[in-house]
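Today's session is about reading a structure prediction critically. Students often jump straight to the picture, but the first step is always the sequence itself: look for stretches that repeat, for charged clusters, for runs of hydrophobic residues. Only then move on to the predicted structure, which in these notes is written as discrete structure tokens rather than atom positions. Here is the chain we will use throughout the hour.
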Amino acid sequence: MPRIVIPDDAPPVMAPSQAYRRLLERTRVDYHDTLPGSEETLIERIAGAEIVINIRSSSRFSENVFGHSPNLRLLSLWGTGTDNVDLAAAAQHGVTVTNTPGVSALPVAEHALALLLAVARRIPQLDSEVRRGCWPRGQVSQMHGKTLGIVGLGAIGRQFARLGAGIGMRVIAWTMHPDPELGYELVSLDDLLRSSDVVSVHLRLSAETRGFIGILELEKMKPSAILINTARGAIVNEQAMIEALIAGRIAGAGLDVFEDEPLPSGHPLTRLENVVLTPHSAGVTPEALESGLQLSIENVWNFLDGRPTHVVISRDGAR
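Below is the predicted structure for this chain, in token form.
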């Protein structure tokens, strides 16, 4: 069997899983339950490995990492995002990269809906006031009949669109790869920003989408609009968003992702009452965890059987 390394299961999600127990029944694994912390340590941990199952996006697979890993044939990612991997370098060094698309789509969409309702209904603030003995009235927003703008109609975006429609919202969307068969009203990004009561971001982070929602985009949104981001923090210009929230140029935000994670203590976002924050946990349910981890392992077996699945980029550079 090839040497398999898991370099970064911290905090552990792979080790407690049934998927991992089944993996160990078939082969030995070099397992690490701490983050590498540096590129040098990551290189040391995967030295000689033919297959790496990567858990955390903080482990960055750069040109240098691939260059120091001459035996590496497969990088199997748990999760959908590939912004921590230099895909061109992977192909150049003959490494196939796979991921686990779709397994977290429903829990992330549910979480986006929870953030939306928490912001619109001011649930954290009302909960806090009731606990202090107050009895506040009103001051909440109804979402039925409002417009939900979906930015990105991938698996998560489509699930959230379905949930939004389910509570009576009008759903419009903008996507990089428009397809009328997706079944939603497609509009320009400008139209979406100007007409939506809720703007929800569901894009992958890439060079093209970094800072995608910036000063100009925020200025186009309604003062009553809510911004939801469960994708990647860097897709939204965080400082511009904070300034818009403070100035009342948008009404609120529900955020599961941030430019710097974990969110630093005392961060300006933590002082804003019109924001609901969660710790990049939208897709972390027992069901999604187990499915995703199992799929990351299945991708390994399928690769070894000569029929690779869920390939992001192959060793010959094909996507």
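Discussion point for the tutorial: The chain has two domains: 4-103+285-313, 105-277.
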